[in-house]
Design brief:
It contains no helices and 11 strands. It is an all-beta fold.
């Protein structure tokens, strides 16, 4: 995962992210997503965003399903001592095309994620800081059954390399709920975060 956050000024920022995943084939990526958004700082700890993205699944190295998604997001951070509690809410609208079945469909989904992080070797995050983090995210599909469709649990560590770059690694467990039967997915996560603050160069 590569994530870029670009702070334009004291109020506006841009966001972009790219992901590769091995879902059913661990040796070969069979899923990717490209997404981006435009956000606004209501306060230092409160930032809504509007985003769009393209999500693609492959099967046997051939295109299986494409998704175009738009979403509204709201993030509100609460800090208690060294702990940071990030509350992320999302409302999504998706349009799908399954090329193998030549089928079109759509979906409305709501998500909530609570991410808790804490620096381990410093009082706050700065270059050289190692942090521990864990989150739980719930997914609700209001246009389908069951309503509670997915749950994600993540645990890992993050290292702040300098003012612009940080790396994160950990384990992610995903539980898919369906009337036909539930499914568990397991991922080893590796991410690079790039933060660019244009206001510091002005």
């Amino acid at each position: 995962v590569v994530t870029i956050n670009y702070k334009l000024n004291s109020k506006f920022f841009m966001y972009a992210e790219g992901q590769l995943r091995g879902v059913s084939d661990f040796a070969y990526p069979d899923y990717y997503e490209l997404k981006g958004g435009f956000g606004y700082y209501l306060t230092k700890n409160h930032k809504p965003l509007i985003g769009i993205g393209r999500y693609v699944n492959y099967k046997n190295h051939s295109l299986e399903k494409e998704e175009f998604r738009v979403w509204l997001q709201d993030i509100y951070d609460i800090k208690v001592g060294k702990f940071k509690f990030e509350n992320r809410f999302r409302a999504e609208k998706s349009w799908f095309y399954n090329s193998l079945k030549d089928e079109h469909s759509d979906r409305i989904r709501l998500r909530y994620r609570l991410n808790i992080s804490m620096p381990l070797n410093a009082d706050k995050v700065a270059p050289g800081t190692l942090s521990a983090m864990a989150y739980d995210e719930t997914f609700f599909v209001v246009t389908d059954d069951p309503l509670f469709a997915r749950n994600r649990v993540f645990g890992g560590f993050s290292y702040q390399i300098d003012n612009n770059f940080a790396i994160t690694s950990g384990y992610l467990w995903q539980r898919e709920f369906a009337n036909s039967g539930n499914k568990n997915l397991h991922f080893i996560y590796l991410g690079l975060s790039v933060n660019i603050d244009r206001t510091k160069s002005q």
